[in-house]
User: Fold these one by one.
Assistant:
Number 1:
Amino acid sequence: MATVSITPDQDTVLAEIHIAAPPERVFQAITDPRQMPQWWGQQGMYRVTEWTADLHPGGKWSSLGVSADGKQFRIDGEYLEIDPPRLLVHTWISSFTPSLKTVVRWELEPQSVHGLHPSGPRKAGTGTLVKIRHSGFAGDAAAANSHGQGWQRVLAWMQAFVEKGETIDTRH
C-alpha cells in the first residue's frame, strides 16, 4: 500500500511504495510508452490511452486519456533529470489544472526483498522503494489533496502491474 502525505505548506505531495521488482523494471514501467497505457488507470475511473516520450533531459512527454464520463484529458511535461534506473524528474501540466506547472520527482532505491508476504513466503531478491515528490501546488490544498489521492492509486496500479502483470483490463 502506498503512503501519501502533503507538506504543511500544501505545496508538495510525498508518496512512496515498496515494489518487489528491481529498479530497472520499475523504471521501465514508468518510462516505456507501450507499458504506461497498460496500467495507468482503472475501469470506471479514468485511464491513459496514449503515452509518448522523448526520454532525455529537455525531451517532451505527453499523456492522453479519458475519464469515466468519456471526457478527454491530457498531461504534458518535459524531462528535467534522468538517471536510469534511479531518478526521473519531469514537469507536469494537466488539462484539468492548467494553471499549475508542477514537478514530479521519482526516486527508485534498491531494497532487499525477503521474508513473509501476504501471498506467502518469498525468496530473497531485489525490490525497489519508489518515492515520489510532486511539488509546485503553491498552497492549493484542493489540487494537492486530489493529486495525493491520485498518486496513491497510481502507485498501487504500478505495483500490481510490475509484480503480477495486472493491467487496467485484467485488474479486479
Note: Helices lie at 23-31, 36-39, 141-164.
Number 2:
Amino acid sequence: MSGFGSAASRLGRPDVGLMSLPEMVDNAHRIAQSVGIPVIADADTGYGNAVNVIRTVHEFEDAGVAAVHIEDQVMPKKCGHMEGKQVVPAAEMAAKVAAAVAARRSPDFLIIARTDARAVEGLEAALDRARLYREAGADVLFVEAPQSEQEISVIARAFPETPLLFNYAEGGKTPPVSNKFLRELGFRIVIFPISTVLTATAAIRSVLAQIRADGSPINVLPVLGFDDFLDFIGMPEIRELDRRFA
C-alpha cells in the first residue's frame, strides 16, 4: 500500500504528508480485506515520536497487514523521490524502530526501516543509518532512492545477510533495472508502488477525453466488459451467498 498512491487516490493530492494515521489505516484495512496475499503498508514517519509509533504499529497490525515500513523523514514528509526532504536525527529514528519492534504483537508482523537520507546526506550516511536501524531490530532495510545501478549494488553489498527492499518507483530518481539484476544482488522484496496508479490515470484521462469529444461513451471500447468487472469485484461470491442464505 503506497503512500503516494493512497494520497493520489483518496485525496487527489501529492504525497506530501497530508494523509493522517486514521486515513492510512482505513485504507490498509480495506485493502487487506480485499486480497488474499500479505499486504505491506506505508506507515510514513510513524506519525510522531516513538510513543506514537507504538500506536501506529498496533493500528496497522489490527488492520490486518503483514508489514509496515517507517521512514526517517521529518513530518510532514514527502514522497521519497521528491525534492526538499529532511530527515530526523538517526538516533531518533533508531528509537522509533526499537519501539515498533517492541510494540508488535505477532512475530510474523514485519518492521521495515526506511531511510531517505540518500538525497539529504549522501549514500554513505544512508548506509550508516540503515546499519543503526538494523541494530535497533528492523526485520528489513529499505534505502530509498539510489540514483544509479552502482549505488544499488553498493547497498546490496553493504547488507549481504539482511533482507533488503527495493522500491522501483516508476519514473522516480532510481533508474529502471531488471528483476534479474535485483535477484542476483540479493534483494528480497521489490515493490512497484505506482504502476497501477499511473496506468489507471492514463486510461481515465483518455476515456474522458474521448467522451468529451464525442458527447457520449458510444465510441469507447471497454478494456474490461461490465460482467467481467462484476466477476472481478466478487459478484459470483455474492450470488453464492444469496443462494446459500436466501
Note: The CA atoms of residues 8 and 14 lie 6 Å apart.
Number 3:
Amino acid sequence: MDYYSPALSTITLEQMRAELRHVPSRFRSEAEELLDACIQVIVSCRPEGSSKPSRIEPPVDSFLEQDSRLRAFLSRYLDSDVDIQRGDVIMRLCFYWSEFSEGLEHVADPESSEFFTTFHPHATGGLVKITCCDASAMLKDRYDDYEQVVGFSATLKPFDYYARLSGLDPQP
C-alpha cells in the first residue's frame, strides 16, 4: 500500500532550491520558475482556515498540467549537451512530481474507492499525500504476468487476510 501512497512536500522541494544553483545557467531560471510553480500547486491545496491535516479533493488538473511542463523541460534538458550527474536535481524534481501525478490517476478514477488524499499544513507550506487503503487489485494485475508468485513476511498470519491484502488467491 505504501508504494501506491506517494506524497509531495514543499520542504523537500525547497531543499532542491539550493541545488539549482549548480544547474547550467541556460536552464536555471526556468527550473526555478517550475519549482516555484510546483510549490504553489501544493500550497493551493490547503483548505482555507485549516491548521490541521485535512482530507481534500486535489486539483488533479493543476498537478497534471505542472507534470506536463516538467516533462517538456526535462526533455529539453536531456536533449541538451548537459553532463547529467548522479543525483541530478532536475531528474529528481521531475521524478518526484511524476510519481505523485501518476498516483493521482487512481484518486481521480470514479470507480476507485481505495484512495484518498490529505493535506498536512506546516509553517513553510505543506504536504499533499495520497493514501492507498487497498492495493490488492493492482498487485493482482501485476501477478498475472507470472506463473508463480512467492510472498514472504513475518506477518503472514492470518494467511487468508494477508493473501487477499497482497492480491493473492488464498486457495491453492
Note: The mean pLDDT is 89.
